[in-house]
Amino acid sequence: MHIEIPSNLPTNSTLPERKYDVFLSFRGKDTRKNFTGHLYSALDQKGIFTFKDNHRLEKGKVILLELFKAIEESRFALVVFSENYAFSTWCLDELVKIWECMKVMGQIVLPVFYNVSPSDVRNQTGSFEKAFAEHEQNFREDVEKVQRWRVAMTKIANLSGWHLQNREESKIIKGIVDEISCKLGPTFLNTNGNLVGMESRMKQMDPLLGMGLNDVRMLGICGMGGIGKTTFARSVFDKISYQFDGSSFLANVREVSMTQDLVALQQQLISQILIERNINIWDVYGGSIEIRRRLRHKRVLVILDDVDQLEQLQALAGMHDWFGLGSRVIITTRDKHLLVSHGVDNVHMVDELSHEEALQLFCWKAFRKGHPTDGYLELSLQMVSYDAGLPLALEVLGSFLFGRSKAEWKDALDRLKKVPDRTIFDILKISYDGLQELEKKIFLDVACFFKGRDKDEIREILDSCDFHPDIGISVLIDKCIITLSNNSLCMHDLIQYMGREIVRQECPEKPGQRSRLWLSDDIQRLLTKNEGTEAVEGIILDFPAYKELKLNAKSFSRMNSLRLLKIKDASLCQSLQYLSDELRLLNWHGYPLRSLPSNFQHNKLFELNMCYSHIKQLWKGVEHLNQLTIINLSHSTYLTETPDFTGASNLKRLIFDGCTSLSFVHPSIGLLKKLILLNLKDCKQLRSLRAKIEWESLEVLILSGCSKLGKLPEDLGRAVSLKNLDLGGTAISQPPFSIVLLKNLEQLSFHGCKGEPRKFWSSLSSLFRLFSRANPESMGLRKVQFPLILASYHH
User: Fold this and answer.
1) Which residues of the chain have pLDDT under 50?
2) DSSP assignment string, 554-587
3) pTM
4) How crowded is residue 640: how many other Cβ atoms within 10 Å of its Cβ?
5) Would you please indicate which residues are annotated as catalytic (active-site) residues?
6) Which of 213, 339, 507, 720 counts the highest number of beta carbons within 10 A?
């Protein structure tokens, strides 16, 4: 029957640092080849460091002194009392030393009674009486020695322990091992730096583990590279592994799979759990069968670290029923979809460290303590801001800066802003290397140009480039490379640095031979010195460093792969002869010429954005522009007329706000069935909109400030989706009869109409009354909408 260890004995937290977990005291001739041998193997299998016999003793040392030292350096002492135990003076000397260590050092002592009665041991009767009779005869001149042996034996035999009583040895051994494992508890590798932030993560993980439940669970630990998944998994392993029949931590599954094969990992898994060296597996299929056959009745803990392929999971932890009840399988990966595909029960997403945690981890590496050295606080905060809570970066850079001067710190920080640390870069780039080609293109576009932008807006641009962004963005999110926040595409700063460094390395010395450019200096050099090549796919300059760029028009002549162009206030030394036919985005704020190049093929263009341009006319005749969705020429004061939109049937947004010279809008504008927004605000020369209306999708029509516009299209009511109609500041005095058909209209504004607002309002009211008499069934709708329209009326 198992006897509980007294709860008042010292626990692991109160013991001094020891070399051994357990000192095993036994009589070799009685138990070495059976009970004690099996007990030692079970302890060793659990990772409990056990001293047994003198096989660990250093040669040339006095054996008894070394034994005593080993006892002192052990947290536990296991004493196996057997029939001939007391006949050994070595065992009795060990016993006295163990008793002293228990009294003085708080050592935990556990007696095991192997085929002997505890009362015989306590009272020295039976075989123990015979043994002590011999000792008293042999040590007549040292009676005190024998007495010390007797006292120690009596005291230790009175402690709670285990009595076999002809019970099954394997169950007793399991009970002993479990009890010691529980008392030892988790053993962490390092309490100074590696485990910063681990306590909060453990609290989140505990409910997912469900250690009190007897089910089989597969759990995922997921996050970007360098976020600390492996360290976290190690901590979980150290904390709970002692509670299982066997455990295995398979590190670097991705890397091992590349250098070896899955058979080697299958062999390692079984070997670690069963403590067997000669595991013969011939192929992956046979290995899967072997894992299930050997482990399906065992309660095991399996950690599969850094998995990146579904076949790895299928080979190592294919199904829940491969493992016994109570088992836990934990998988770390950068790919959330991989976990979903395998059917894990729960996924824990690992977040970046908080600012306080990041500073603490960095300081442990940079100063070997939890806070900055005097004078280094500001530099430390700058470095932590750069690392943005990524444990990998904090550890690498902290270790690199240890012992260096402030000048070296400042220089290192300046260098990092230009070129990422190689170790960090290589680890983060693993995620990039695992992407398909189109996914790589999407990632580089977001990293270089679109971080923080609205997902739907960027999806349209990427779709126009034939990048299939719906699946591509989803994959990047699953692989923890990008994230979504309020529908914006986000990524960790170091991931962005990594992406931009990939582009820079395409040609470090010559920007014109890189695929993407975003820095003012690089773009200025490219466009003024005619260094562009066919390698350039994107030029986006959101924040120019120069008030005005004076471009060499020939700079674009060799950039025939250019997809994306966004520049601002750039003048040209001569006329522009060429723009790439591959352009999807053309955003040139302040475009200085009256027209686009005559040979420019617009057919792949998705967005044309040329605010404050000198454009007078976009194109002549009908151009087939099926990809074109947005035209924004606001404040282009030289524009006199819009082009024929017949070949641009997919336009959704047209913005001519502030085009003060615009006097003619081509009638084909009314045929744009997908148009959502039409903004003609302050087009002061516009007198009419002569168009047959087929605006099925139009929601916003802004005509405010068109001071010479006196009439709306008679069939405006066909714009059935119209919600916002702004007629303020126009010359319109009579609304068309069809306006009453705008059943979705939410806001109508005619503030400042030159055509007498009261007359307009009176006409509108008359139309509504007339319509309601002819269509009484619609009155309920009008009673709701009429106040909304009234609310927008301004005197």
Assistant:
1) 1-16, 55-61, 187-192, 773-774, 776-795
2) GGGTT-TT--EEEEESEEESS------TT-SEEE
3) 0.74
4) 14
5) 94
6) 339
